[in-house]
């Protein structure tokens, strides 16, 4: 048997991501990734221990592409946070099936850690501190993750909205009317509208801001 060719982590993670994008997260396995690479399953074990390591490689491939540079300091803190949230949504939204993996492996991903560090710096400069800063960061992450899943698993342009709009108005007056309006809301409008509401509700506690990082 010829010796298996040398593979880089980038090649393995790209093959795993291809499997997920094409066939869904449930299809990810050592066998399917090996097949994508043109290897036997046993040959892939020379490079990767198990599916969990494959997952971590995929998460870093996706999240490592997020631009984590701080936005220009001249804008308001809300505008700067919006830039960071948009970057995360645009990058991860290109691979929506990976979203569950970002939750599982976020604490091991340098990409998401760098993104969070930049957002925390912006929040700190705005006057957020302590538990309030924790809640603000978690709220932003929860929003962008949930928004991506809604956009791809339950879009307003999908059959669910049509079905809700056809509910009997005497029994579901608000649901049916709201769904009729929802059919005209684009995914971008929905995302930015929700983010605007969230950012308006985030306010630092009164008092002096904590020192920023050096």
UniProtKB/TrEMBL annotation:
Which sections of the sequence are annotated for DNA binding? 29-48
Which domain of life does the UniProt lineage start with? Bacteria
InterPro entries the record matches: Homeodomain-like_sf, HTH-type_TetR-like_transc_reg, HTH_TetR, Repressor_TetR_C, Tet_transcr_reg_TetR, Tet_transcr_reg_TetR-rel_C_sf
Q: Does the keyword NAD apply?
A: no
Tell me, which GO biological process terms does this entry list? Answer: negative regulation of DNA-templated transcription; response to antibiotic
Identify the residues that the record assigns to the HTH tetR-type domain, covering every copy.
6-66
Which GO MF terms does the UniProt record name? Answer: DNA-binding transcription factor activity; transcription cis-regulatory region binding
Asked whether the UniProt record includes Transcription regulation among its keywords, one would answer yes
Q: Which UniProt keywords apply?
A: DNA-binding, Repressor, Transcription, Transcription regulation
| Protein name, per record | TetR/AcrR family transcriptional regulator
